[in-house]
Amino acid sequence: MDMADDTNSVTLKELKEAMSHMMEELGKPNLADYFPFLQKIDPQGIRRRNTVTFRKLINLFGRIIDQRLKVREASGSLKDDDILDTLINMMVVDQEKKEDQLDKTIIEHFLLDLFSAGTETTSTTLEWAMAELVKAPEIMSKARAELDQVIGKGNQVKELDVSRLPYLQAIVKETFRMHPTAPLLIPRKADSDIEISDYIIPKDAQVIVNVWAIGRDSSTWENPDKFIPERFLDIDIDVGGRDFKLIPFGAGRRICPGFPLAMRMLHLMLGSLLHSFDWKLEDGVRPDALNMDEKFGLTLQMAQPLRAIPVPTKH
Ligand code: HEM
C-alpha cells in the first residue's frame, strides 16, 4: 500500500510504534492463555494494553481510508494504484449493489492483519541478514561479487534476476534457519488424539512448534550456530512448508499466505542494499563483537537494533 499521499494526516512513525508495541505485547507469555479462569481478570494487563493499541491502529487505518476517499472524491476518478484503492473500489461496488460484504470496518481489520503479519516479520528478517553479513565481511564480499557479475555494476536488481543469484538465495535461507522471525509459529490445537513418533498428542492439546530449535539442532545441521550460506548451495531445500527442517513460514493449511510476497521483497531489498552500498559499522565497533542477542516477542528481533553505515558503491 502506498502511504506516501497519506502522510499529511497520519504519521508513519505512529504506525511503526503502535505495530512494534503490539508485537511485543502479543509475544509475552500470558498466564490467562494457560489458566482460562484468569481471562476476565487479565492479571498482567496484556489484554487491556492490547485493546488500547488495537483501537489506536484501527483508528489510524480509518483515517488513512477517509483521507483516500477524500482525495478520490476531489479528483473524481477511481484509481487502482494499490491494495487500498482496490479494496475501496470493491467497497464502492458493494455499496452500489446494496451488498455489505466489504465495508470500511472490514477493510480496517484486513489492513490490521496484513500490517501486523507482514511488516515486522519482513523487516526483522532483513535486519538479521544484514547483521550477519556486516559481521562476516567475507560473506558480504562474496554476495556483492555475485551481484556484480550477474547484475553488472550500475544496474538495478530486479525481481527477475533473483533466480540467477543462488548465493543471495542461500543467504536468505541461512537467515531463516538461524533467525526465524516467528520462532514458535502460531499455536495449533489437536483435532483428535494423534500419535506422532511414539508420542500421543491428546485431543485439544495446544501444540507449539519450535522452529528456532529445529534450525539450531546439531543432529540436523552441521555447525548450527555458524552462519554458513554455502550449506544451501548443494542441497535443494524449499522454505515453503515441504521440508520440515526449515519452515520459517509454517506449513500446512495455515502456512503464511504472504510467503510469495515476502520472498520477493526480501531478495529484492537485500540484493539492492548489497549492490548499491558497501556497509560498515560505526567507529569502534568490531564486526566480530556485534551484539547478536535476541529479544523475544511475537517476532524474534535483535535486542540491540543494527546500526550500519551505507557507503555508496562506486560504479
Ligand atoms: C519474512 C517474512 C514473513 C515470515 C517469516 C512470516 C511467517 C509467518 C508464519 C510462521 C506464520 C504462521 C504460519 C503457521 O503457523 O503455520 C504466518 C502467518 C501469516 N502471515 Fe506471514 N510471514 C512473513 C511475511 C508475511 C507477509 C508479507 C504477509 C502479508 C502481506 C503475511 C501475512 C500472514 C498472515 C495473514 C498470516 C496468518 C495466516 C493464518 O492464520 O491463516 N506474512 N506468517
Low-confidence stretches: none
Strand order of the largest sheet: 1-4
The structural class is mainly alpha
Q: What share of residues is helical?
A: 40-55%
CATH superfamily of the largest domain: Cytochrome P450
Instruction: From the 3D structure, determine the CATH topology of the largest domain.
Output: Cytochrome p450
Strand content of the residues, in percent?
A: 5-15%
Biggest pleated-sheet summary: 2 strands, antiparallel
H/E element order: HHHHHHHEEEEHHEEEE
How many runs of DSSP E, i.e. beta strands? 8
- Please tell me the overall pLDDT: 90
From the N-terminal CA to the C-terminal CA, the straight-line distance is 32 Å
Rounded to an integer in angstroms, the radius of gyration calculated over CA atoms is 22 Å
Query: How many domains make up the coordinates?
Result: 2
Q: What small molecules does this complex bind?
A: protoporphyrin IX containing FE
GO molecular function: heme binding; iron ion binding; monooxygenase activity; oxidoreductase activity, acting on paired donors, with incorporation or reduction of molecular oxygen
Family: Belongs to the cytochrome P450 family.
Binding site for heme: 256
Pfam family, one: p450
